[in-house]
Write a structure and sequence with these properties.
The protein has 348 residues and is α/β, with parallel strands linked by helices. It is built from 13 helices and 11 strands. The relative contact order is 0.16. Bound molecules: phosphoric acid mono(formamide)ester.
């Protein structure tokens, strides 16, 4: 059976996830001298429905250094846009079932980023698009961020936390919503991180204004994993309370699920979304907020960051900022994921 990488934060057991984390850290230590050729002559197709700097560059660079070939396909230009049956346009789109079978007859994996506008902003629609690819693909499908999960980011995040904090059991992570002048960031990053963090035994405080609650199914799954690992999950609607005593503060913006459409063809409630964002402009992590955290606590963000809105410049540029180590770890996390999926022996 083909092993896909769609929502590993949700589907992998906690021990398996921790084993992958250890393998990824080990793969990083051996990179690049002792990992060259790990994916020699393997080809992966990359489909980006949304913009990307880190994901695109790190996957392409990593695969090249492991000896493989990256072929980037733009779903909106140069190929027929892969579409599900209810969104087909003659000679403009091509059914996902057909694209998946064709690409998997040529190469070794298909990696996809899709969230937001390309899926009509209906929560879960982008994830279903990836699932449709996986249903028809004979080779692994890798989630490079959908509307529910960003597993490559989460693996890089917990790698960074492990490197900075050492053992993670019982360490306190605050995942906080933050204000941005754009409402377009999906909930994928906090949801994947919450699941990954509790699997490593971290105590997580989620801080957000009430309109920014995460998916209740993800919250329930996180609670279940926490029950297995002994991790604790706490929710607060007060940024200062959330940050107080934290060993790591991960503050970023995400959209309100309550203001997204329920069905295809419906519009985002942009006025309502804008209003709940503007009511919480003070949710910005600055040096005063960081002083509430534990001594030597770090600040994390997946990037791109909206400086002066999500976080102040001085925090991003301070020694407490771990954001560029996180970005670097995207390369190493994804190298390990590609090796794990295409050539499992190379991870041991
Ligand atoms: N963090 C992240 O996924 O960055 P990009 O959007 O640049 O890929």
């Amino acid at each position: 059976m083909t092993c896909h990488w769609l929502a590993p934060d949700l589907t992998m057991s906690a021990p398996d996830y921790r084993a992958l984390l250890s393998a990824a850290l080990s793969f990083k230590r051996r990179y690049p001298l002792h990992t060259e050729g790990a994916l020699r002559d393997r080809t992966i197709y990359f489909l980006f429905y949304n913009a990307s700097l880190r994901t695109r560059s790190s996957f392409q660079t990593g695969l090249a250094r492991l000896g493989g070939n990256a072929i980037v396909l733009d779903p909106h230009a140069g190929i027929y846009t892969p579409a599900l049956p209810d969104a087909e346009i003659p000679y403009t789109t091509e059914r996902v079932a057909d694209v998946a079978r064709v690409l998997s007859s040529y190469g070794d994996a298909i990696a996809i980023r899709m969230y937001g506008a390309p899926a009509g902003w209906v929560y879960g629609a982008a994830h279903r698009h990836l699932e449709a690819f996986a249903e028809w693909s004979q080779v692994p499908v890798i989630n490079m961020e959908c509307d529910r999960f960003h597993p490559c980011q989460a693996l890089a995040d917990v790698m960074t936390l492990r490197e900075q904090l050492g053992g993670l059991t019982g360490r306190k992570l605050c995942i906080s919503w933050a204000y941005s002048g754009s409402w377009h960031k999906p909930v994928a990053v906090p949801q994947s991180l919450l699941l990954a963090a509790v699997k490593t035994g971290m105590d997580v405080t989620l801080a957000y204004p009430p309109p920014f609650a995460l998916d209740s199914h993800v919250m329930a799954a996180a609670a279940q994993f926490a029950g297995q690992t002994g991790a604790r999950i706490r929710v607060t609607h007060d940024l200062r309370d959330g940050v107080t005593g934290a060993h790591a503060v991960y503050a970023k913006s995400w959209c309100s699920l309550n203001h997204l459409p329920q069905h295809s063809g419906e519009a985002v409630d942009e006025a309502g979304m804008h209003a709940v964002f503007e009511r919480h402009r003070d949710w910005c992590v600055d040096a005063d907020i960081m002083r509430l955290a534990a001594p030597n606590a770090g600040y994390l963000h997946c990037l791109p960051v909206d400086r002066g809105q999500e976080v102040s410049d001085d925090v991003v540029e301070s020694p407490a900022s771990w954001v560029f180590r996180q970005a670097e770890n995207r390369l190493h996390a994804q190298n390990a994921v590609m090796a794990h999926l295409l050539n499992p022996g190379s991870l041991t």
